[in-house]
Predict the 3D structure of the following.
Amino acid sequence: MNWMPTLFRRRKLFDDLSEEMRLHIEERVEQLKGEGMSPKEAERQARIAFGNLALVEVRSRDVWQWPTLESIWADVVLALRQLRRSPGYATAAILTLALAIGVNAVVFSVMNAFILRPLNVPRAERLYALQHENEDVANLSYPNYIDLRDRNHSFDSLVVYNISAVGLDTGENPTSAWTEEASMNYFDALGLQPYLGRFFHAGDGHGPNSAP
């Protein structure tokens, strides 16, 4: 039901409902009188068949009404009272709800990061990954990368990277950390600029003390 128009014409709906109920009873009275019943008895039988008029009218009006604040508050109080009577059930319900919300938040965060949102780099739709056919992981040796890079005529540039786990010691307890090794043209190809400082560039891979 469309609630907004109903909200502003609710009084007319209530009046129409009362009138329709009255017409139904009168119609039934005339039918019973036509069957030979006295007017008084016909009206009594019609009202018995129709039921409690006040109750029917209230239930019908509820269809067009918003739940009152008192009704909502009563439901909240009843729920809290039931939970207080069964603390074990309440604890299990709250923990289950919290766990479900947490799991859904984590799943959505992962989907949002890897599926729903593209990579936060310029022209992300033009990025491609190269790998050997029939391999689940895009493993490629550095010499093969050099060969592909030098013979490339299809892409603006080719980069190579490798993700690995290392031990990180800051002077206290060593911890494990994930690192990414990348070719010197990595940030140039992605078109990224740092907020502070500088990235390494393709030119940094040449000269004394340089590394690929």
Helices lie at 3-8, 10-34, 39-50, 53-62, 69-85, 87-116, 142-151, 186-190. The beta strands are 161-168, 175-182.
